[in-house]
Amino acid sequence: MPENAPDAIPFEDIPAVPVSAEARDGYQVRLEIFEGPLDLLLFLIRKKKIDIQDIPIAAITRDYLDYLNGKVQINLDREAEFLFIAALLIYIKSQMLLPRETDLAEQEDPRQVLVNRLLEYQKIKAACSLLREREEDQILQWKRTFLPPLPGESELDFAEVSLFDLAESFFLMMKRRSAEDTRVIRGRDVSYEEKMKELFGLLRDGQVLDFLAYFATQESLEEALVSFFCLLELVKSRQAVAVQDELFQTIRVWLRKDARRTGHHE
Amino acid sequence: MSSDLKNIIEALVFISQEPLTLDRIKAVLEGAPDEEVQAAVDELLQDYAAAGRGIQVVHTGGGYILSTRPEHDRWVRRLLQIERKNKLSSAALETLSGIAYHQPVTQAEISAIRGVDSTYTLKTLLEKKLIKIIGRKKAPGNPLIYRTSERFLQYFGLNSLDELPSEEEIGKILQEEKSSEG
């Protein structure tokens, strides 16, 4: 053990953290103001004005479990992390209750693992508040390294999208729509010609159309499909330009200048 | 000569997209004595620090770079059409802080430090280029190893990891927190 600095966490002593909902799709559930179970534990310890080096495990375990019980409606995946620390607390408590042959002073305090983690976590939290101050100071000083692209008038900044990108956005949009709880009351026949006229109406006078927003207004899958085909047709016949700033972002559509002049030919 | 040197350095800083290190400046100005280069840089910084300018030369991320002055933030944002600059989420900041002090670390290690699974947060930090992958650990599963990036330093206005909040500063914060609750 000589390699372990006193304040370093011996990682091998810490069992892996259960994978939470955070990992799956980036959906983060925050438990009140606590960033995690250690945060909650530190809060409880501070509230009781307890010395971290000498935690009354029984009392803290009770507080901790009370808190978890009070939160019936929390996300179960996220709760796993909180329960994990609860289990650790109970384990430590049981270790302290066990009769020992050797004197406690000679053995390592069963609380030590937890204390080390808490001390380290506390340090990181404190560093966070200092870093936050620096961040607030720094973000007022704009540098070109962090510059987003200038909001543009020019067409040249964008890469024109391929039909595949269009199709991808279309499926993305359909996926979004299927997630919504909507119901179509009645079907309506949509003709290609009507749709084309409608699209041209929207795109006239150099209007820029937000592709995803436009599809969101379509009533049915059928209608959405027809508009999509119209759009593909316009792009294919080089009457309209479709650009996408970034992958998975919306695609914006407008008519080419010559198409605007000649108008729509049947 | 000295004022020439200063103007050349100004041009170099202007055209640099990333912080321009002193070593790079010296390499470009080959032959110029180190102390003269340093003096010219200092003078340049002073010139910009003097009132009456919208931009400044700052020493950050291990080099010199031009930035706008904080008091013009509002106007810059109007130009860029940014309502409010996004700050890091507290989960992201906590993860970043953990990595900064414990690097190089793996996902499992940073998750253990925080007591919270950090897979997603690591992904966002990677996207923001505030951390980078430097390889794989020779351990079961060969997990990826993460470090803070040069951009991390620049983001917080630091020149090296040595400038991270020190033990003393952190101790002071903890002391304040304790007494404020008492």
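The domain at 2-78 of chain B is CATH 1.10.10.10 (Arc Repressor Mutant, subunit A).
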